[in-house]
Amino acid sequence: MDPSRDDRIRDPWGERTPYAAGERWPVRVDAYTVKQPERWVRSASLLHSNGDAIDIGVRDGRIVGVRGRATDRVNRGRLDPKDVYGWQAGLSPDRLTVPLVRRRGTLVETGWDDAMKRIVTRSRKLLDGPGGWGHFGFYTTGQLFLEEYYTLGVIGKAGIGTPHMDGNTRLCTATAGSALKASFGTDGQPASYADVDHCDAIALWGHNVAETQAVLWMRMLDRRRGANPPAMLAVDPRPTPVAREADVHLPIRPGTNLALLNGLLRMILEHGWVDEAYVAAHTLGRPDLEKVVAQYPLDRVAQVCDLKPADIERAAELLGGSQRLLSTVLQGFYQSNQATAAAVAVNNLHLLRGMIGRPGAGVLQMNGQPTAQNTRETGADGDLPGFRNWNNPDHVRELAELWNVDTATIPHWSPPTHAMQIWRYAEQGSIKLLWISGTNPAVSLPDLARVRRILKRRDLFVVVQDIFRTETAEFADVVLPAATWGEKTGTFTNADRTVHLSEKAVEPPGEARADLDIFLDYARRMDFRNRDGMPLITWTDPESAYREWQRCSAGRPCDYTAISYERLRRDGGVQWGGERLYTGGRFNTDSDYCETYGQDLATGAEFTAESHRAKRPDGRAFLHAAHFQPPPEEPTDDYPLRLVTGRNLYQFHTRTKTGRVPELDAAAPEVWVELNPADAKAFGIDAGDTVRIESPRGGIEAPARIEDIRPGTVFVPFHYARHAANELTITAWDSVSKQPLFKLAAVRVRRIEA
Ligand SMILES: Nc1nc2c(c(=O)[nH]1)N[C@H]1C(S)=C(S)[C@@H](COP(=O)(O)OP(=O)(O)OC[C@H]3O[C@@H](n4cnc5c(=O)[nH]c(N)nc54)[C@H](O)[C@@H]3O)O[C@H]1N2
Ligand SMILES: Nc1nc2c(c(=O)[nH]1)N[C@H]1C(S)=C(S)[C@@H](COP(=O)(O)OP(=O)(O)OC[C@H]3O[C@@H](n4cnc5c(=O)[nH]c(N)nc54)[C@H](O)[C@@H]3O)O[C@H]1N2
Ligand SMILES: [Mo]
What we know:
The chain is α/β, with parallel strands linked by helices and 754 residues long. The chain has four domains: 7-91, no CATH class; 100-167 and 376-388 and 396-502 and 509-575, Rossmann fold; 174-366, Dimethylsulfoxide Reductase, domain 2, CATH 3.40.228.10; 641-753, Barwin-like endoglucanases, CATH 2.40.40. Strand 2 and strand 3 form a beta hairpin. Helix 3 packs across helix 23 (542-553) and helix 10 (257-270) runs antiparallel to helix 13 (298-305). The longest helix has 17 residues, at 112-128. It is globular, with a radius of gyration of 25 Å. The chain starts with 30 loop residues before the first strand and ends with a strand. Bound molecules: ligand MGD (2 copies) and molybdenum atom. Molybdenum atom is lined by residues 172, 368-369. The site of one ligand MGD has 32 residues, from helix 7, helix 15 and strand 22. Keywords: 4Fe-4S, Iron, Iron-sulfur, Metal-binding. It comes from Paractinoplanes globisporus. InterPro entries: Asp_de-COase-like_dom_sf, MoPterin_dinucl-bd_dom, Mopterin_OxRdtase, Mopterin_OxRdtase_4Fe-4S_dom, Mopterin_OxRdtase_prok_CS, Prok_molybdopt-oxidoreductase.
């Protein structure tokens, strides 16, 4: 078969290459080129967090296709539909090629010097006036490169000194970070994708991996079709491809994950499916956990979660009978009720069963965006870089020495400002300059009517740095045209800690510039200085920025010092921390080393250093328990249905890229709403009818699809700007991770047209 004709739209997961437990995942090389490339350039996918290694084909200075890299540990040559076709977005004729500024109400083209001068003039005025750093907000992404985040982080923390910096990673994987810190002391996924090769059971907690990390799903399917296949559990209110494949599917009532986990943990304890030696040696908190979960007998859990008791028992047996369990957790948990407590409960399951840090046994608190891990590592999400603890004066001092600035400059007097609070400050008028890079909040934030009101404020100076003129750019005072994947060099790290180097293959269009160059230009013009009066930022290109980051990460869990550009060129993907973390059962919880002193899982209240030290964690993991609480918005007589939102295999987020790729656009061109047959009947709706969906905040129209989704629940994909699911969603977030609850609004539907 000619691989370039391989149609990844009709056959998204491709041919099976079955393999047995303990074997190596066979190679299968996928490729798609429109012309014969003259050369191949090393990269990885930037359209999800899986980190599929890709070679970019170049001819006559243009990208002409892609090929999966056979030798890479992540994909062994495979590509998913977005990998195969997505690169064409960069070639789109409507890329931003020059800066835009607002003159008399409209955006007009200008030069870089004018655009940057406007930003710098405004910045200087704000920084030197009363309120200073308090007026700055930076809202970045999970889609730039490590070098760019680190630079932005230093600008924010050591240049301006503002705590108001976060990424859209807050919407995405803030809960992964919080759950990992809470249980194990620092961020960093314990498991490895290689665990798919060794496990005897896979549990997918609110993770539609088949559509969202399709190459990881290929690996799981290949194990399922080989000898000694792993058992599979799916917890999802919808009949996703994962749910259909699973041996046990729990179509849970949205927002009740924690009740289910507490019930499962109770059964694990009661049946004695506990690794007593492991728990005694490597954990603390078991008595409290037992006390909490004892209150979740089977009938209560079945009732709260609206599941069949026999199905819950089968799930417990699958988990309890496994010897090598791999769990993945994603948005069905992170964007739902009690996100951190529920994600932590999955960690508890693995700790109780002693299933962390050995082949086949581990947990992946997944990432979503391709470079979200780096946003968190480098501190562009507001954390301190290198998984340092803002509340630990020694960690702050280390950074002050590294950057040669006063400790007082580095914001550490309170937790960093989370994205939802940054938007609140902008709404209240205290943040007066909001710099948005690589994200499209006018479509992706909850409660869009409110977001538009904020972006329209006269007293808010909005900078948008993007590759297209997005819905958000329409509100900007200055729009900066960025170069993107294939047009710039940098590194990024996937969901199993694999670092890839992505190299520049072609020139960006027009005057578009790499995000790194934009940030460096700003730093230069702002003339940020260190304690000796020398320039704060001395690096000038991706590799010198990376070397600074290596210094910053030294001695921390995400230590990059052994992973040079040279090694990445030679070896392809390399994991920081090795294949698995915590192999000896020693965790990052020492009080001097950990990233957090902990938070109350119910309220989010921060614990003190003293209370952390008093617990003497000394490298043991925390078993944290919390009680189920109902979601903040429940269906009512007026709004009787529950809305969950999410993704489709062919579309990426707000479709700025996939909407411009003919193959992907055509595969899912418009929004829809999924309804259960019984609900459809009750509301007089047939398949294909146009329906109106309304929440207390707004409404959209969409054609109906009748599906086997659980009764009382409707699903809308959030990709479509003109019929955006976020017109309906609520401004509410998890009290610990501050991640918004995108999967829990109350809505009503009615037919408007057959
Ligand atoms: N094709 C594609 N792939 C992507 C992306 C994309 O836009 N398109 N985006 C990337 C990014 S940034 C991310 S974050 C990931 C997200 O990857 P996923 O988390 O897999 O995707 P979602 O569709 O957001 O949510 C997963 C599932 O959660 C279920 N769910 C909703 N509410 C609940 C609940 O209360 N409990 C449980 N147990 N399940 C619930 C939904 O039915 C849905 O099937 O995908 C990444 N990959
Ligand atoms: N209802 C609902 N809402 C959700 C979710 C949900 O499940 N349901 N999921 C949430 C999640 S997990 C996520 S991750 C967010 C995603 O939400 P967004 O981050 O808003 O989505 P994207 O469309 O990926 O926006 C990325 C922007 O960066 C631009 N861009 C791409 N490459 C580059 C580059 O190299 N440089 C620069 N400067 N810009 C670039 C793109 O053109 C695009 O405008 O949505 C969140 N919103
Ligand atoms: Mo995400």
